[in-house]
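Q: Is it fine to ask for two folds in a single conversation?
A: Yes, each is treated on its own. Send the first.
Q: Here.
A: Result:
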Amino acid sequence: MQKNKALIFVYNASSGVSHSLLDSVHKILSPKTYECKLCELTYGLFSEQKKWKAFKKQSDIEMSFLHKDEYQSRFKSKFEKLHDLPVVLYQDNYDLSVLIGKQELSQIETVEVLIEKIKSRL
């Protein structure tokens, strides 16, 4: 694991079981209006994508996964306004930078492409 370096994945979804269920229903009924491309890429309707799970397990960098409400409470002093979500942040000691922003995430079609982008930028 790289010392003091981490990736922070922030989903454009709220935490909690009820929110997860609503998100799954939204993906089924109206996938084109679902607002979290990161969720769409890394999760199926009910569970994590196998390729994504394997990537996380094999990676040597620490990763955190936050819902938007968790991100707001954890980093409220760091940012005056919330990043456009979803977003993948890179943390190097106390510095945070955007590794993959919302606009770029919206253009990614597969979890494999997401994984390659992450690997190429680390």
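Q: Second one now.
A: Result:
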Amino acid sequence: MAYLAKILLYPIKSLDGVEAEQATVLPSGPLQYDREFAIVDAQGRFVNAKRHLKIHSLRANFSLTERVIHLQLPPSNLYQVFHLEQEQEQLAASLSGFFGFSVKLRQNTNMGFPDDTNSPGATVISTATLKEVASWFPGVSVEEIRRRLRANIEIGGVPAFWEDRLFTDSGETVSFQVGDVQFLGVQPCQRCVVPTRDSYLGEAYPNFQKIFLQQRQATLPSWVAASRFNHFYKLSVNTRLPASEAGKTIKVGDNIEILQLQS
């Protein structure tokens, strides 16, 4: 039986994540605290791993309840501690020194800063999929693939690519239940350059995207809605949630069940 094996939240976009035992759905659909903050430059552009390789070397630990980040900025081995509400300017100043240009911290408690603003709900993948993908890349662990793909919800008790059941032909969504919370699976997630790199060092894995494309096509289940794959550099599922689910909570161990297609 499918169940919720892990919840991973990423309080500051592009920085390390934090594992949680439960998470609450925001009115706009995302999980509370996920991508709540983003680092931006003077022009308001995201300072993220897609555009700034250096960000991979930052290490961050979060306390969600205390609203604190412990941040390690190379070359120092020491962690600096900042309150995410009360010390945003001090945090931005330290980050500006690290990047070598002025940055600010932006906050959005309603939606956060998801890549897909049309489907801002939690991204979904299965543990078995992570294990399968790791097997494509000798020397890359399952945990490293997890860090590269940065999904929010991880499903246990199912075979690899089970989450591909959570989308269908364009224009329809798939309704599924996590505990008491209804999600709508929308589409496979198009990947960017970030998964090609070591999540700690930023070093590129040789031919990562080529290998991924070949293996994803070769292992694509026969029942998948193939029309959603104009290319095969896609993995995990983007979701959105009905407004009725706002304020509800998902918990590790919750059962997961596919309900029906939604037009």
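Q: Anything structural to flag on that second result?
A: Two points. The CA atoms of residues 69 and 82 lie 5 Å apart. The two ends are 26 Å apart (CA to CA).
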